[in-house]
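lol ok so funny story. i was supposed to be doing the assay writeup but got distracted and ended up predicting the structure for this chain instead. priorities right. anyway since i did it might as well share w the group, maybe its usefull for someone
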Amino acid sequence: MQKEDDAMAGTMNPSDATPITAGQIGKIQDLLAAALRKTNVSSGLTQGVIEDPIWSSRLVDGFVKVVVQYAEDYQLASQPRVLLRKFFNPEQFLGKGWKVAQRLGKRPGQYLNAAKIIGKDYLKGRESNITGKERLYRIKTSPADIQLGDDHFLALWEEEGHVTLNWLYETKNITFLSFWATILQNPDGDLCVLCLFRGNDNSWHKDVYTVVFMDWYSNLPAAVLVS
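and the output, tada:
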């Protein structure tokens, strides 16, 4: 089991103490230069800051603080958070007559690395929303996406204190996830998906949304794992 957990953590070691390399510094310089060229800051003012020892020191200190802060935030967001998937029984959880209608997309292994969860809205261009039928079609025609389903929903929902859900909010600002790998059917025959959302009370809630009878906006994303 330890080997499987180690594999879930990937190859990155956030605690790696190797100093920043010259190549990485050069890449940061390239990114900074490209960004500065898009601004209206003048060459004269820039040169003035560079030559003034007080202002140049402030510039360097501020820049270093920003880089360090982003590195620390990235480390926090990249830490593997591994949960064991839980078997989901529709009738036990939702009531008599509920059943699984379809299972979609790739299925991850027994463990869920929640650090890889993102929300994907499946909108295109300037679309503000799409129908559930259209989102379902786009998910079905995106086979590379790793959708999360009922067993992932249950693992997140039943975790004591919703620690991982709170971590997703704090590190990725995730407030809503819908689980399209499992399309459920209610007793009336309507297709539905499980959802988790953070309410105004700052706690997490569960719900079931119908696929067809509502529009899906960017703030109602599907739960997907980054590959």
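Residues 116 and 225 are 5 Å apart (CA to CA). Helices lie at 2-8, 22-37, 43-51, 53-78, 90-94, 132-140, 150-157, 163-172.
back to the writeup now i swear
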